[in-house]
Amino acid sequence: MFKIKLRDFGSFVALTALHVCSVLQPVVEAQANVKTIYPVVDRNLLLQVGYQYNHWMLGKSMMYSLLVLIGLWYSRHLQQARKLETEERRGILKDSQQLTAEEVKAEWLSRQRQDAFPMSKFLCFATPWLLTFVGSGLINYVRLYLVIQHFCVSNWRAIQLYGELHVLFLRRLLAVALIPYWSQFAGGDSLEEAAASLPANYISYETHLLD
């Protein structure tokens, strides 16, 4: 049987959150505002960097993360089975004959190899998560940068906006999950009022191009 540890649940949540962030599709909207108070003209250009999120993204991320955990549990199972098999074989050899120093050394090296974590087996399960995480994250960042580079946004600032977008999404996701319980136990605002107080799902960035 697979040996499940308590920290595996935390790993599942972390893997799912990271994967969802990588598949978020960034959306950029530009808003130009012009205010004229003769003889002064106030102009500014704002970028609203948001994201598109669907529930199927969370479902796919949970599926890939669960596959990683299954690989982890299976690898642990193989490691433990090999360890028990090695100990049984060593006990039989000790009972049947006296080993020389070279045989003891060879047996120790063999035991170390067999007791090692089966990384190749684990990677077979983790590869789909890794490929989709890296591929989706890279594609979505390139899509974001190809748009906002036309507004004189540097590559470093684009990376910052991309990271801030992920933090914003996780904050909103956590807030949405906790609002029903917070309203029920803490009282106070209704669900509608609490939902209205959520942070916006976009980041406003002033470009100063019209100054």
UniProtKB/TrEMBL annotation:
Keywords linked to the UniProt accession: Membrane, Signal, Transmembrane, Transmembrane helix
**Signal peptide feature range:** 1-30
Which chain regions cross the lipid bilayer? 56-74, 122-142
Q: What is this protein called?
A: Uncharacterized protein
Protein's gene: Dana\GF10594
